[in-house]
Amino acid sequence: EAQVTQNPRYLITVTGKKLTVTCSQNMNHEYMSWYRQDPGLGLRQIYYSMNVEVTDKGDVPEGYKVSRKEKRNFPLILESPSPNQTSLYFCASSLLQGGGPYEQYFGPGTRLTVT
Amino acid sequence: AQKVTQAQTEISVVEKEDVTLDCVYETRDTTYYLFWYKQPPSGELVFLIRRNSFDEQNEISGRYSWNFQKSTSSFNFTITASQVVDSAVYFCALRGNAGGTSYGKLTFGQGTILTVHP
Questions:
Q1: What average pLDDT does the structure give for chain A?
Q2: Mean per-residue pLDDT for A78-101?
Q3: Pairing mode, if any, of strands B33-39 and B88-95?
Q4: What does the pLDDT read at residue B100?
Q5: Which residue of B6, B106, B107 is in closest CB contact with A101?
Q6: Looking at the DSSP assignment, which residues form a beta bridge with residue A38?
Q7: Nearest residue to B77 via CA among B86, B59, B65, B87
Q8: How confident is the model at residue B101 (pLDDT cuts 50, 70, 90)?
Q9: How confident is the model at residue B31, as a pLDDT?
Q10: Across the A/B interface, how many CB contacts are shorter than 8 Å?
Q11: Residue B25 class from Cβ within 10 Å (0-12 exposed, 13-18 middle, 19+ buried)?
Q12: Per-residue pLDDT, A23
């Protein structure tokens, strides 16, 4: 089954404790992206990757890191989480068409709470 | 910078009513792509449609239709004869075409919560 998986689905952590949210897709998609969803703000792009070893900042990259060492995986790293990073996070992947992403497939989401 | 505005935060209708969700965008790119996504109460995000800026034809898919007007920078979404299953958050998104890795940058609107009552 074609899918994007994220782990963990739920995470409660404390300020400053490094964490990684994993994202994996099995569709051989070139493009992957991370978003955060906050009430009233919609979805905001954190980082995206057009292919292996090619990553770029979205609109809200501060406090996050990513890496793309393999095509299927795109982990999101919070080196020193803060309460303002409490949010619902989505990973997505897509084939590239017209130079950019077409239909994005989203993971189920990771609800992160930082206390 | 690109921007997407969905001015309607919440819409409430009764089943079988038609409803239009507005989306207005801003971009300096001469070509770009617009998308709509649906997020039902279960939380997953589902792709509905993509439109290229050079194709202004309206699109209809069953009860769904999309009206793209470049002159007013709008890409509105209409649901005809709404049903309870249409209750969801709907997001409009914009992808620019400025070159290089900027092709991958997507900007979403704030979302419109649609509630369809039986």
A1: 95
A2: 94
A3: antiparallel
A4: 63
A5: B106
A6: A42
A7: B65
A8: low
A9: 86
A10: 71
A11: buried
A12: 98
Q: Which residue in this structure is represented by tokens 């800026």?
A: B53
Of A22-31, B67-76, B96-105, least confident by mean pLDDT is B96-105
pLDDT at A102: 87
Shortest CA distance from B47: residue in chain A: A103
Residue in B with minimal Cα distance to A47 = B105
Phi then psi dihedrals of residue B105, to 5 deg = -85, 125
In our burial notation (b when 16+ CB lie closer than 10 A, e otherwise), range A66-92 reads bbbeebbebbbebeebeeebbbebbbb
Query: Chain B residues contacting A, CB < 8 Å?
Result: 6, 9, 33, 37, 43-47, 50, 52, 91, 93, 95, 97, 101-111
